[in-house]
From TrEMBL:
One Pfam assignment: DDE_Tnp_IS66
Name under which the protein is recorded: Transposase IS66 family protein
Organism from which the protein derives: Candidatus Kentrum sp. FM
Domain Transposase IS66 central residues, every copy: 2-157
Domain of life: Bacteria
Amino acid sequence: CALIVSLAYRMRISRGKIREFLHDWLGIELSTGTIQRCMEESARASFPVEDQLVEEVINSELLHVDETPHKEKKTLSWLWTFVTRYSVLYFIGHRSAEIITNLLGESHVGWLMSDGYSVYRKYAKRLRCWAHLLRKAKGLEGSLDRKVQRFGRRVHEIRGALMDAVYEAREGPPPGDLKQIHARLLKELRELCETMKGAPHEKASALAGEFLNLTVRSN
């Protein structure tokens, strides 16, 4: 059954093609009905595993969440990924607050690592994914607008300095409070973003808004 499930869901092969593969390569003769029943039995057998994964996600100290477009035939859905230290849970559904609310509700009290999607902002213990922000800042560096170029470049530089400080702190205790030590850089970043928040350049304005949402949450 594991091979059949993998062919159907991982390789996205139709029941008829699975039947053909099993016959031609393994000499196994199965009807499409038997293949379907095998998949249904596998789904029923995995129910306890799903409950365990949900429990691990809810009780995790650090939870990474992301969502990406996922097409099923002609229907556009979203693939949600919930990653803890030891497990990964997938959901396919709409891109809305309903998915994460139904899963986590008010039960998750650990840290939530995410991108800037607004549905995550209600969680007080939220960490922002720097990789998303860095990619957007680097994109602005290639803009034809010089003001936008400078904004993207400086954000990239400040981000680099702050991340270096974080990595150094992991190696040993810093000489003081990191927020106080780098107060000048944080102030500069905030002022840059406040200046660009209303800029006519849509992507620069959006990135500035994301940073401001982040700094407001951390204050």
